[in-house]
């Protein structure tokens, strides 16, 4: 295998706050290939957004300690100067945020905001940039793009705003697109439209996409590979099929069991994960999931609370858990029976 | 639903919000038709789910039932008593029987009051002194919702989102209500916490026999929680049925499209075909004539534009399964969430 397009190695992002050191990301590694979508799943505070802000270099450097390696197409990003990053952002890599209304400027027309990025990176004239903005709006499926280009974000509906954001992110044909919960605030029918749009655009341009979400259903729809995060660490990774069909970590299993489905039995109560996500100020020792894990006592010697399980990845598949494969086979057996009919 | 009088009977319920404009004299220039002629019943101890996309009027419906808003038209009957335009005094005894759980567990609890004060608030207002004192009752309630009874003098910020939602549930239970309107009670919570709260609500519903109007946009959660489900679109109910009928055999094209758009965490061998609805929900200020869904419907004809379809038991429906459509989906169509076989529908 050649070198991956984006490679993140042992990333650590720590913030020092008044209350102490927050270890938002604590040793995370992954690769993304061109034309592929990596889905990152995790709950609030699992470090998924922090990871992606560090790829884009959007953390305040004075208050953030970052360690590890982020290499995009042969270029190291963590140590890169602000000027280098500025040239890359919006150009080679760009981002779609969750809340489109909050991420668009209310004082500028949508067209101006799309054109701005284009002009900055290509040095195009105002007229060229405007034409490009219209073309982008058309490409993301906004009706009457030549009229809409002069409208303000408040005149757009939620789904259209998200489309405009996508247009802005794609205006320079980026090779890496980071989508941070881009559909969470949208209705399901609009969510379906946006996901189809992203898939179409990816096919057309071969963009590498990192798709952050808390919704395993969305992952099943859009991702090729999946990375499950918990408490700033990766607990499980693999292809979408591997992770969703045969989850290998109690947390992933717990997430799936706590979600009702459209065709499951309604008489069986859901199986929630007890407790709540950990505080990253004072995270649990050992495996960060052990206080909520149903199987922690199955591991002898209290290993779960003392030692951090290693994530051994073989051909892109692996999970960080102290349970042995045989134990998992026994303990997870019910899963297949209850979930897939 | 064997009882003769339902707990709650809603007929023709309408709420229009006036839009003021003009200068120098501001007058009403239009109306947001948030809710437009709803008919439904809720039986004692039953859970009715209200689903639909944002702007379909489901939250407004919740607020009308609890009479936090006054309807523009129609009738709300609670246990045989007309409360449509009831005044403060008339409503007082009923308010204690109809309680509400809100979406945002951060905004719906007063940060300056202790949990004990928050939960005993409804008892204070209604001057209820339970046996053994209010504090004892608060402790009981905390125990019911799965919180430590010793925490009654803590403040909301000391609790996590899921725990706060439990406090909201405890407050709603304080007056032993007969009906709880839960407006998106779990959508602000993390996935692993959602299930905890859903299970709690289910326990409450079953053990205390409380009826629920469960408002949510998550179709899977509604299916899990509600015995009967109503699908709303642009201020109207387009389909209402027992959950098995609705999810297995959706008759309204919108219901089918909505179900097919729900992403499911399963990997099928063949990619699941989805019905793509084009565009957005039209504005409720100027809703389409006839059937309100027709602008996004792949089956719409002339008739749909001129004639609003009534909410009736269309041919092939089981009793209690009502659909408002001129051209209901037929039984030959494969149940929506699995596969849609007509590619025309996707276009």
From TrEMBL, chain A:
Alphabetized NCBIfam families for the sequence: oligo_HPY (TIGR01727)
Record organism: Streptomyces cellostaticus
Principal subcellular localisation of the protein: membrane
Keywords from the UniProt entry: ATP-binding, Cell membrane, Membrane, Nucleotide-binding, Transport
One record GO biological process: peptide transport
Membrane topology note: Peripheral membrane protein
Stated name of the protein: Peptide ABC transporter ATP-binding protein
InterPro entries reported for this sequence: AAA+_ATPase, ABC_Ni/Peptide_Import, ABC_transporter-like_ATP-bd, ABC_transporter-like_CS, Oligopep_ABC_C, P-loop_NTPase
Membrane spanning stretches: none
UniProt xrefs under SMART domains: AAA
Domain ABC transporter: 8-256
Gene3D superfamilies the UniProt entry points to: P-loop containing nucleotide triphosphate hydrolases
Superkingdom: Bacteria
Subcellular location: Cell membrane
A cellular component term, taken from the record's GO annotations: plasma membrane
Any GO molecular function: ATP binding
Family that this chain belongs to: Belongs to the ABC transporter superfamily.
UniProtKB/TrEMBL annotation, chain B:
GO function terms (MF aspect): ATP binding; ATP hydrolysis activity
InterPro entries tied to this protein: AAA+_ATPase, ABC_transp_ATP-bind, ABC_transporter-like_ATP-bd, ABC_transporter-like_CS, Oligopep_ABC_C, P-loop_NTPase
SUPFAM superfamilies cross-referenced by the UniProt entry: P-loop containing nucleoside triphosphate hydrolases (SSF52540)
Keyword list, A-Z: ATP-binding, Nucleotide-binding, Transport
Highest rank taxon of the organism: Bacteria
Key word ATP-binding present: yes
UniProt-listed Gene3D superfamilies: P-loop containing nucleotide triphosphate hydrolases
Gene Ontology biological process terms from the UniProt entry: peptide transport; transmembrane transport
Domain ABC transporter residue range list: 8-259
SMART domains cross-referenced by the UniProt entry: AAA (SM00382)
Keyword set includes Transport: yes
Pfam families according to UniProt: ABC_tran, oligo_HPY
NCBIfam families given in the database record: oligo_HPY (TIGR01727), PRK11308.1 (NF008453)
Family classification: Belongs to the ABC transporter superfamily.
Name listed for the protein in its UniProt record: Dipeptide/oligopeptide/nickel ABC transporter ATP-binding protein
């Amino acid at each position: 295998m050649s070198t991956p397009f984006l490679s993140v190695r042992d990333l650590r992002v720590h913030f020092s706050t008044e209350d102490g050191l927050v270890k938002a990301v604590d040793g995370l590694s992954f690769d993304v290939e061109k034309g592929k979508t990596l889905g990152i799943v995790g709950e609030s505070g699992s470090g998924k957004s922090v990871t992606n802000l560090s790829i884009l270099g959007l953390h305040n450097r004075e208050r953030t300690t970052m360690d590890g390696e982020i290499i995009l197409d042969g270029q190291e990003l963590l140590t890169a100067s602000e000027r280098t990053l500025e040239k890359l952002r919006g150009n080679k890599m760009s981002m779609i945020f969750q809340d489109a209304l909050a991420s668009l400027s209310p004082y500028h027309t949508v067209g101006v905001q799309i054109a701005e990025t284009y002009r900055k990176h290509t040095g195009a004239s105002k007229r060229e940039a405007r034409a490009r903005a219209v073309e982008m709006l058309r490409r993301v499926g906004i009706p009457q793009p030549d009229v809409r280009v002069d409208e303000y974000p408040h005149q757009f509906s939620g789904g259209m705003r998200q489309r405009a954001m996508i247009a802005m992110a794609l205006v320079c044909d980026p090779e890496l697109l980071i989508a941070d919960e881009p559909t969470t605030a949208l209705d399901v029918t609009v969510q379906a439209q946006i996901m189809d749009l992203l898939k179409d655009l990816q096919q057309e341009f071969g963009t590498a996409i990192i798709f952050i979400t808390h919704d395993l259903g969305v992952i099943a729809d859009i991702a090729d590979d999946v990375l499950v995060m918990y408490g700033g660490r990766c607990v499980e990774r693999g292809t979408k099929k591997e992770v969703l069909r045969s989850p290998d970590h109690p947390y992933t299993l717990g997430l799936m069991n706590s979600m009702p489905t459209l065709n499951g039995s309604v008489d069986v109560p859901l199986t929630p994960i007890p407790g709540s996500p950990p505080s990253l100020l004072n995270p649990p020792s050992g495996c960060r999931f052990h206080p909520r894990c149903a199987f922690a006592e199955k591991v002898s010697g209290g290993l779960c609370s003392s030692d951090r399980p290693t994530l051994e990845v073989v051909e892109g598949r692996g999970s960080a858990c102290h349970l042995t494969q045989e134990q998992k086979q026994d303990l997870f057996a019910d899963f297949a029976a209850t979930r897939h009919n | 639903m064997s009882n003769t009088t339902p707990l709650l009977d809603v007929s023709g319920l309408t709420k229009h919000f006036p839009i003021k404009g003009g200068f120098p004299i501001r007058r009403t220039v239009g109306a947001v038709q948030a809710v437009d002629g709803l008919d439904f019943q809720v039986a004692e101890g039953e859970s009715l789910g209200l689903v639909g996309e944002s702007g379909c009027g489901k939250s407004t419906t919740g607020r009308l039932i609890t009479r936090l808003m006054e309807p523009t038209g129609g009738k709300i009957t609670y246990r045989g008593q007309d409360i449509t335009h009831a005044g403060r005094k008339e409503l007082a005894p009923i308010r204690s029987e109809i309680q509400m759980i809100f979406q945002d567990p951060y905004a719906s609890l007063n940060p300056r009051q202790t949990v004990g004060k928050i939960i005993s608030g409804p008892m204070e207002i209604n001057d209820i002194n339970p046996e053994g004192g209010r504090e004892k009752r608060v402790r009981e309630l905390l125990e019911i919702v799965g919180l430590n009874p010793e925490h009654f003098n803590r403040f909301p910020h000391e609790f996590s989102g899921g725990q706060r939602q439990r406090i909201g549930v405890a407050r709603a239970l304080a007056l032993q209500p007969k009906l709880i309107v839960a407006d998106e009670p779990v959508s602000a919570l993390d996935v692993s916490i959602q299930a905890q709260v859903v299970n709690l609500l289910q326990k409450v519903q079953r053990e205390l026999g409380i009826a629920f109007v469960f408002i949510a946009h998550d179709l899977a959660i509604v299916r899990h929680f509600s015995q009967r489900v109503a699908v709303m679109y642009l201020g109207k109910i387009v389909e209402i049925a027992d959950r098995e009928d609705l999810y297995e055999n959706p008759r309204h094209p919108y219901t089918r499209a909505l179900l097919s758009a729900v992403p499911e965490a399963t990997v099928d061998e063949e990619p699941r075909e989805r019905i793509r609805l084009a565009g957005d929900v039209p504005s409720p200020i100027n809703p389409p004539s006839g059937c309100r869904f027709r602008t996004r419907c792949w089956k719409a004809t002339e008739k749909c534009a001129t004639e609003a379809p009534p909410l009736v038991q269309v041919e092939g429906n089981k009793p209690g399964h009502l659909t408002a459509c001129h051209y209901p989906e037929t039984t030959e169509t494969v149940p929506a969430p699995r596969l849609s076989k007509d590619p025309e529908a996707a276009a």
